[in-house]
Amino acid sequence: MSSLPRPALAVIGGSGFYDFFDNDATHVEVDTPYGAPSAPVAVGEVDGRAVAFLPRHGKQHEFAPHTLPYQANMWALRSLGVRRIFAPCAVGSLRADWGPGTVAVPDQLVDRTSGRPQTFFDGGGVHVSFADPYCNELRTAAVKSAGHDLRMEDSGTMVVVQGPRFSTRAESRWFAGQGWDLVNMTGHPEAVLARELEMCYAAVALVTDLDAGLGEGDGVHAVNVFAEFKKNLGPFKELMRRAVAAVDSEDTCERCLVHAGVSLPFELP
Protein backbone atom coordinates (compact mmCIF):
# COMPACT_ATOMS: atom_id res chain seq x y z
CA MET A 1 0.00 0.00 0.00
CA SER A 2 2.83 2.41 0.85
CA SER A 3 4.30 2.07 -2.66
CA LEU A 4 1.00 2.70 -4.38
CA PRO A 5 1.03 6.02 -6.29
CA ARG A 6 -1.50 8.51 -5.03
CA PRO A 7 -4.53 8.51 -7.38
CA ALA A 8 -5.63 12.14 -7.07
CA LEU A 9 -8.19 11.63 -9.88
CA ALA A 10 -10.95 9.02 -9.92
CA VAL A 11 -13.61 7.72 -12.26
CA ILE A 12 -16.76 6.08 -10.90
CA GLY A 13 -18.27 3.80 -13.53
CA GLY A 14 -22.04 3.47 -13.85
CA SER A 15 -24.31 0.74 -15.22
CA GLY A 16 -22.36 -1.34 -17.75
CA PHE A 17 -19.10 0.52 -17.00
CA TYR A 18 -17.33 -2.01 -14.78
CA ASP A 19 -13.68 -1.59 -15.77
CA PHE A 20 -11.52 1.22 -17.11
CA PHE A 21 -7.86 0.29 -17.52
CA ASP A 22 -6.34 -1.42 -20.55
CA ASN A 23 -3.06 -1.99 -18.73
CA ASP A 24 -2.42 -3.67 -15.39
CA ALA A 25 -4.09 -2.12 -12.38
CA THR A 26 -3.69 -2.67 -8.65
CA HIS A 27 -6.88 -3.54 -6.79
CA VAL A 28 -7.04 -2.12 -3.29
CA GLU A 29 -9.35 -3.31 -0.53
CA VAL A 30 -10.37 -0.27 1.52
CA ASP A 31 -12.10 -0.40 4.88
CA THR A 32 -14.17 2.60 5.93
CA PRO A 33 -16.30 3.61 8.94
CA TYR A 34 -19.28 2.97 6.64
CA GLY A 35 -18.33 -0.53 5.58
CA ALA A 36 -16.81 -1.72 2.33
CA PRO A 37 -17.23 0.20 -0.94
CA SER A 38 -19.01 -1.31 -3.93
CA ALA A 39 -15.82 -3.13 -4.99
CA PRO A 40 -12.06 -2.97 -4.46
CA VAL A 41 -10.70 0.26 -5.91
CA ALA A 42 -8.59 -0.26 -9.03
CA VAL A 43 -5.58 2.06 -9.33
CA GLY A 44 -4.00 2.32 -12.76
CA GLU A 45 -2.53 4.86 -15.16
CA VAL A 46 -4.15 7.17 -17.70
CA ASP A 47 -1.96 9.54 -19.72
CA GLY A 48 0.85 9.20 -17.18
CA ARG A 49 -1.40 9.90 -14.20
CA ALA A 50 -2.36 7.59 -11.36
CA VAL A 51 -6.14 7.23 -11.51
CA ALA A 52 -8.58 5.33 -9.29
CA PHE A 53 -11.56 3.49 -10.71
CA LEU A 54 -14.59 2.25 -8.79
CA PRO A 55 -17.54 0.44 -10.41
CA ARG A 56 -20.50 2.13 -8.74
CA HIS A 57 -22.76 -0.93 -8.77
CA GLY A 58 -20.01 -3.49 -8.10
CA LYS A 59 -18.10 -5.67 -10.54
CA GLN A 60 -21.18 -7.79 -11.27
CA HIS A 61 -23.81 -5.08 -10.73
CA GLU A 62 -24.57 -6.36 -7.24
CA PHE A 63 -25.99 -3.07 -5.93
CA ALA A 64 -29.28 -1.44 -6.91
CA PRO A 65 -29.39 2.37 -6.90
CA HIS A 66 -31.13 2.59 -3.51
CA THR A 67 -28.77 0.07 -1.83
CA LEU A 68 -25.43 1.48 -2.98
CA PRO A 69 -22.86 2.14 -0.23
CA TYR A 70 -22.52 5.79 -1.24
CA GLN A 71 -20.80 6.90 1.96
CA ALA A 72 -18.27 4.06 1.86
CA ASN A 73 -17.52 4.73 -1.82
CA MET A 74 -16.74 8.40 -1.29
CA TRP A 75 -14.79 7.80 1.93
CA ALA A 76 -12.70 5.06 0.31
CA LEU A 77 -11.72 7.28 -2.63
CA ARG A 78 -10.84 10.23 -0.41
CA SER A 79 -8.74 8.01 1.89
CA LEU A 80 -6.65 6.85 -1.11
CA GLY A 81 -5.84 10.47 -1.95
CA VAL A 82 -8.55 11.22 -4.51
CA ARG A 83 -9.53 14.89 -4.75
CA ARG A 84 -11.31 15.05 -8.14
CA ILE A 85 -13.96 12.67 -9.47
CA PHE A 86 -15.57 12.11 -12.85
CA ALA A 87 -18.84 10.23 -12.48
CA PRO A 88 -20.06 8.74 -15.78
CA CYS A 89 -23.64 7.45 -15.59
CA ALA A 90 -26.54 6.23 -17.70
CA VAL A 91 -29.54 8.55 -17.95
CA GLY A 92 -32.92 8.84 -19.57
CA SER A 93 -33.61 11.94 -21.63
CA LEU A 94 -36.53 14.27 -20.90
CA ARG A 95 -35.95 16.07 -24.21
CA ALA A 96 -36.85 14.70 -27.61
CA ASP A 97 -33.79 16.42 -29.15
CA TRP A 98 -31.36 14.67 -26.79
CA GLY A 99 -31.69 11.13 -28.12
CA PRO A 100 -29.81 7.95 -27.20
CA GLY A 101 -26.04 8.31 -27.62
CA THR A 102 -26.03 11.95 -26.51
CA VAL A 103 -23.58 12.84 -23.74
CA ALA A 104 -24.52 15.65 -21.39
CA VAL A 105 -22.44 17.30 -18.67
CA PRO A 106 -25.14 18.60 -16.31
CA ASP A 107 -24.71 21.77 -14.30
CA GLN A 108 -27.69 21.31 -11.97
CA LEU A 109 -29.27 18.52 -9.92
CA VAL A 110 -32.71 17.89 -8.43
CA ASP A 111 -33.05 15.27 -5.68
CA ARG A 112 -36.21 13.14 -5.69
CA THR A 113 -34.76 10.22 -3.68
CA SER A 114 -35.80 9.17 -0.19
CA GLY A 115 -34.35 7.22 2.71
CA ARG A 116 -30.74 7.29 1.53
CA PRO A 117 -28.01 8.38 3.96
CA GLN A 118 -26.92 11.63 2.35
CA THR A 119 -24.47 13.24 4.75
CA PHE A 120 -21.39 12.50 6.83
CA PHE A 121 -22.43 15.21 9.30
CA ASP A 122 -25.28 14.10 11.53
CA GLY A 123 -24.26 16.69 14.09
CA GLY A 124 -21.97 19.66 14.59
CA GLY A 125 -23.89 22.29 12.60
CA VAL A 126 -22.07 21.62 9.31
CA HIS A 127 -23.93 22.88 6.23
CA VAL A 128 -22.17 22.73 2.88
CA SER A 129 -22.70 25.05 -0.07
CA PHE A 130 -24.40 23.10 -2.87
CA ALA A 131 -25.94 25.80 -5.06
CA ASP A 132 -23.72 24.62 -7.91
CA PRO A 133 -23.47 20.86 -7.32
CA TYR A 134 -20.83 20.09 -9.95
CA CYS A 135 -17.25 21.27 -10.23
CA ASN A 136 -16.95 23.75 -13.08
CA GLU A 137 -13.31 22.89 -13.77
CA LEU A 138 -14.11 19.20 -14.24
CA ARG A 139 -17.18 20.02 -16.32
CA THR A 140 -15.04 22.17 -18.61
CA ALA A 141 -12.47 19.38 -18.96
CA ALA A 142 -15.18 16.89 -19.92
CA VAL A 143 -16.84 19.20 -22.44
CA LYS A 144 -13.63 20.13 -24.22
CA SER A 145 -12.74 16.42 -24.46
CA ALA A 146 -15.70 15.69 -26.75
CA GLY A 147 -14.81 14.07 -30.04
CA HIS A 148 -16.85 13.42 -33.17
CA ASP A 149 -17.94 9.98 -31.98
CA LEU A 150 -20.49 11.27 -29.42
CA ARG A 151 -22.80 14.30 -29.43
CA MET A 152 -22.03 16.55 -26.45
CA GLU A 153 -24.32 18.90 -24.50
CA ASP A 154 -22.52 21.25 -22.12
CA SER A 155 -25.25 21.81 -19.53
CA GLY A 156 -28.53 20.43 -18.23
CA THR A 157 -30.49 19.64 -15.09
CA MET A 158 -30.49 16.03 -13.91
CA VAL A 159 -33.31 14.83 -11.65
CA VAL A 160 -32.38 11.84 -9.51
CA VAL A 161 -35.19 9.42 -8.68
CA GLN A 162 -35.28 6.67 -6.10
CA GLY A 163 -35.49 3.66 -8.40
CA PRO A 164 -35.08 0.87 -9.05
CA ARG A 165 -38.26 1.30 -11.08
CA PHE A 166 -38.44 3.66 -14.03
CA SER A 167 -40.77 6.67 -14.05
CA THR A 168 -44.44 6.59 -14.93
CA ARG A 169 -45.47 8.61 -17.98
CA ALA A 170 -47.07 11.20 -15.70
CA GLU A 171 -43.90 11.57 -13.62
CA SER A 172 -41.81 11.83 -16.76
CA ARG A 173 -44.07 14.56 -18.22
CA TRP A 174 -43.96 16.39 -14.88
CA PHE A 175 -40.14 16.29 -14.80
CA ALA A 176 -39.95 17.57 -18.37
CA GLY A 177 -42.54 20.26 -17.58
CA GLN A 178 -40.26 21.60 -14.83
CA GLY A 179 -37.61 22.22 -17.47
CA TRP A 180 -35.41 19.32 -16.33
CA ASP A 181 -33.40 17.52 -18.99
CA LEU A 182 -32.19 14.16 -17.67
CA VAL A 183 -33.40 11.50 -15.23
CA ASN A 184 -31.05 9.22 -13.28
CA MET A 185 -31.06 7.00 -10.17
CA THR A 186 -27.58 7.36 -8.63
CA GLY A 187 -26.45 10.98 -8.89
CA HIS A 188 -27.64 11.77 -5.37
CA PRO A 189 -26.33 11.51 -2.68
CA GLU A 190 -23.06 10.78 -4.52
CA ALA A 191 -22.52 14.41 -5.53
CA VAL A 192 -23.19 15.95 -2.12
CA LEU A 193 -21.08 13.37 -0.28
CA ALA A 194 -18.17 14.24 -2.56
CA ARG A 195 -18.70 17.92 -1.75
CA GLU A 196 -18.78 17.21 2.00
CA LEU A 197 -15.39 15.49 1.67
CA GLU A 198 -14.09 18.44 -0.39
CA MET A 199 -13.63 16.47 -3.58
CA CYS A 200 -14.40 18.05 -6.94
CA TYR A 201 -17.12 16.07 -8.72
CA ALA A 202 -18.73 16.16 -12.15
CA ALA A 203 -21.34 13.85 -13.64
CA VAL A 204 -20.94 12.86 -17.28
CA ALA A 205 -24.24 11.44 -18.50
CA LEU A 206 -24.78 9.08 -21.43
CA VAL A 207 -28.37 9.08 -22.69
CA THR A 208 -29.63 5.52 -23.17
CA ASP A 209 -33.33 6.17 -23.77
CA LEU A 210 -36.10 8.71 -24.14
CA ASP A 211 -38.07 8.68 -20.90
CA ALA A 212 -41.60 7.28 -20.77
CA GLY A 213 -43.42 10.60 -21.06
CA LEU A 214 -41.80 11.53 -24.38
CA GLY A 215 -43.69 8.99 -26.49
CA GLU A 216 -46.37 6.36 -26.50
CA GLY A 217 -44.37 3.14 -27.12
CA ASP A 218 -43.87 0.60 -24.35
CA GLY A 219 -41.94 2.81 -21.95
CA VAL A 220 -38.39 2.21 -20.77
CA HIS A 221 -37.02 -1.34 -20.44
CA ALA A 222 -33.77 -2.23 -18.67
CA VAL A 223 -32.62 -4.60 -21.43
CA ASN A 224 -32.76 -1.77 -23.96
CA VAL A 225 -30.98 0.63 -21.61
CA PHE A 226 -28.07 -1.79 -21.11
CA ALA A 227 -27.87 -2.53 -24.84
CA GLU A 228 -27.66 1.17 -25.72
CA PHE A 229 -25.02 1.80 -23.08
CA LYS A 230 -22.95 -1.15 -24.32
CA LYS A 231 -23.16 0.14 -27.90
CA ASN A 232 -21.60 3.46 -26.86
CA LEU A 233 -19.28 2.17 -24.15
CA GLY A 234 -16.06 2.28 -26.22
CA PRO A 235 -16.38 5.93 -27.27
CA PHE A 236 -17.65 6.83 -23.80
CA LYS A 237 -14.54 5.35 -22.15
CA GLU A 238 -12.34 7.22 -24.60
CA LEU A 239 -14.14 10.44 -23.70
CA MET A 240 -13.43 9.79 -20.01
CA ARG A 241 -9.74 9.11 -20.72
CA ARG A 242 -9.48 12.39 -22.64
CA ALA A 243 -11.27 14.19 -19.81
CA VAL A 244 -8.81 12.82 -17.24
CA ALA A 245 -5.91 13.99 -19.42
CA ALA A 246 -7.53 17.43 -19.79
CA VAL A 247 -7.69 18.18 -16.05
CA ASP A 248 -5.20 20.94 -15.30
CA SER A 249 -4.83 20.38 -11.57
CA GLU A 250 -5.17 17.26 -9.45
CA ASP A 251 -6.06 19.15 -6.28
CA THR A 252 -9.51 20.24 -5.13
CA CYS A 253 -10.46 23.54 -6.75
CA GLU A 254 -11.08 26.55 -4.53
CA ARG A 255 -14.87 26.51 -5.06
CA CYS A 256 -15.14 22.92 -3.83
CA LEU A 257 -13.23 23.63 -0.61
CA VAL A 258 -16.41 24.29 1.33
CA HIS A 259 -15.23 23.95 4.94
CA ALA A 260 -12.98 27.00 5.18
CA GLY A 261 -13.44 28.58 8.61
CA VAL A 262 -15.65 25.72 9.83
CA SER A 263 -14.78 23.39 12.72
CA LEU A 264 -15.61 19.85 11.66
CA PRO A 265 -16.64 17.15 14.13
CA PHE A 266 -14.02 14.83 12.65
CA GLU A 267 -10.94 15.01 10.43
CA LEU A 268 -11.46 14.31 6.75
CA PRO A 269 -9.64 11.17 5.58
UniProtKB/TrEMBL annotation:
Family matches, as NCBIfam families: MTAP, PRK07823.1, PRK09136.1
Catalytic activity of the protein: S-methyl-5'-thioadenosine + phosphate = 5-(methylsulfanyl)-alpha-D-ribose 1-phosphate + adenine
Residue spans crossing the bilayer = none
Where does the entry annotate site (Important for substrate specificity)?
S167, A222
- Residue ranges of every copy of the Nucleoside phosphorylase domain listed in the record: 9-235
Which CDD domains does the record cross-reference, listed alphabetically?
MTAP_SsMTAPII_like_MTIP (cd09010)
The EC code for this enzyme is 2.4.2.28
Recite the UniProt keywords alphabetically. Glycosyltransferase, Purine salvage, Transferase
Species in which this protein is naturally found: Nocardia rhizosphaerihabitans
InterPro entries, per database record: MTAP (IPR010044), Nucleoside_phosphorylase_d (IPR000845), Nucleoside_phosphorylase_sf (IPR035994)
Task: Name its pathway.
Answer: Amino-acid biosynthesis; L-methionine biosynthesis via salvage pathway; S-methyl-5-thio-alpha-D-ribose 1-phosphate from S-methyl-5'-thioadenosine (phosphorylase route): step 1/1
**Which family does the record claim for this protein?**
Belongs to the PNP/MTAP phosphorylase family. MTAP subfamily.
Give the Pfam families listed for this entry: PNP_UDP_1
Superkingdom, natural source? Bacteria
Q: What does this protein do?
A: Catalyzes the reversible phosphorylation of S-methyl-5'-thioadenosine (MTA) to adenine and 5-methylthioribose-1-phosphate. Involved in the breakdown of MTA, a major by-product of polyamine biosynthesis. Responsible for the first step in the methionine salvage pathway after MTA has been generated from S-adenosylmethionine. Has broad substrate specificity with 6-aminopurine nucleosides as preferred substrates.
- Subunit comment: Homohexamer. Dimer of a homotrimer.
**Binding-site residues, phosphate:** S15, R56, H57, T186
Q: What is this protein called?
A: S-methyl-5'-thioadenosine phosphorylase
Q: Which residues bind substrate?
A: M185, D209, L210, D211
